[in-house]
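In these records, each integer encodes one residue's backbone shape. Here is one protein:

___
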Amino acid sequence: MTTERRKARRLMKTIGALLAIAVVIGYGFLKAKLFIEGPQVLVSTPLDGIVVNNPLITVSGTAKNIAHLSLDGGKIFTDEIGTFHESRLLSYGYNTVTVSALDKFGRSTEKTLRIMYK
């Protein structure tokens, strides 16, 4: 083999190794982002501060990076993409509904909705 060919082969190996390292580091940052962000909850319905005429409401939304999810202290479940739907019966007057999430590292978040039933 000529020296030019050896140099080219060595260069290709170096480039391949650098690309592999870049992919591993990029994947690590992507996964670390999920841990850094912590649990996330987005309640899509009902809206905070809404006034309703029906005592039965459906609380729905999405949750990411969670280990446990609860609605007013009772455990609820998500589907495979993180969507949840749960019904609640309101009392007459002012009500609060709280969705709480906990991740596997013990970090938590919660969303509280204020709903008026007239």
Summary: The helical segments are 3-37. The mean pLDDT is 90.
